[in-house]
Write the structure tokens for this entry.
Amino acid sequence: MKPTPEPDDVTAFFWRGAAEGTLLVLRCMVCSYLSHPPDVACARCGAVELEPTPVSGYGSVYSFTVVRQAFDPAFLREVPYVVALVELDEQPGLRVLANLVDVALDAVEIGMRVAVAFEDRGDQVVPQFRPSERPAIVS
Amino acid sequence: MNGAGREVAVVGVGFSPVTRAGSPDIRTLTLTAAHDALTDAGLVASDLDAIFEYSFGGARDDSPIAVSAQRLLGVENLTAFNDIMGTGPSGLASAMDAAMAIAAGACETALVYRTITRAAGHTGALREGPARAVGAMQFSAPYGYGGGIILAMAMKKRRRVAELGGSFEDYGQIALNARRWAALNPRAVFRDLITMDDYLASRMVADPLLLFDCDYPVNAACAAILTTADRARDLRQPAVLVDALAYGTGARPDWLYAEDFIFGGTIHCARELWRRSSLTPQDVDVAELYDGFTHITISWLEALGLCGVGEFHDWVEGGTRIGPGGRLPLNTYGGQLAAGRMHGLAFLNEAVLQLRGQCGERQVPDARAAVVANAHGPQCGAMVLRSAQ
């Protein structure tokens, strides 16, 4: 059985959002910096005034690995699978770790456009990413 | 050390036997290495007034705590000690903390050690994960992100080549180099040379990370004795001075979410190290740079300015630059890739032996200055060492 995320006071908003089909990160109310994974202070300025804020769920593959050797027996039947860091469009360096799903292993590359996809695991919904055609918004 | 109180020297180095099988008692390993280091220094246990050790801690039970070593060695009292947990710069952290304590006058003569077992160090092993992912694991374990930092290192290897150029074969140069030096080190566990084809054909653990990018877990203890430079003058061995040391973390320190994903804290650490040092990168005769994963070694070479950032591919000259007889001998005992994971402290011990001129077949001629670096990402540490003469 794959490990199930156990929400706590700091992360509960994230998993509630996932269950409702929204990817949420923490926005600093002082400097507007977006932080992930959730923490009790802004990763840039240290302010503790943070609020959950929805993001588009679009991003690019920052880096990835194709896992060939399982470390947890729960993933023995999954190998080979992709673990990726996705950089969300909203902010440079705003990275989310997830699996890439619905993609051929040899098609994955750095810079590949992806969109969040929510995977219902019964006891919890976890954000994943799948390939997307939508280009990055150039501001 | 510039601006850091009393001058500090490394005066003794010691090792336990290194084994690839069995489960030797960690107290015996530690005692063996500690006595070896004391003998090397010409000191006895009662000369010690400080002990610093580094361990993963917790359930892994990989190293006895400092006061256990004190009790086993029969030291009457410690004026400084610490058990440094596995979030610091690997085994080198024990020597760094001792050097700071001695420089500050908190103690005179310190034993430092890193003891590790194959079982505790085998982070790639298949083991039952937690049913419920709590804390930071909420954002990793549900995705099959296991094996310590193995997957982070795989992603850093891929990102480095994509962003800075070069090739995956560059990483192989670190692995091949380890074997070239290990062939000259009777204590190393893998003394056969490997070719680039062997490297590329090694098992794919997490594409693009190969088995030969990863170090090899062993049962071993590594120890060193540090004291003041004043005291070192009267001891058995030629003194090796701690010229500078620095920790480093970088911004937003983390293996995955750090501001600098490729280099982690190595660049910050190296910048501070050279700022404090009386030497420069051009003065380095021998480099002993952590190779728990090949990515870490390349990061340090570039961060320390031994090689330009992104220039490793050309700089390494097909491996000749860093091998025996090369212009920058690297990991001259075989590193953790070929001599086994003594987890950081063996890099210091090798630097000391090189600067004393005691490395036999693998001795770097006229080695006067060495740089030693440990770990990566959020837990970097490094030292510059120089011979006292």
Summary: The two ends of chain A are 43 Å apart (CA to CA). The interface with chain B takes residues 1-8, 11, 15, 36-37, 43-44, 62-76, 78, 80-81, 83-85, 93, 95, 97-99, 110, 121, 124, 126 of chain A (CB under 8 Å). DSSP finds one helix and nine strands in chain A. The longest strand of chain A covers residues 58-67.
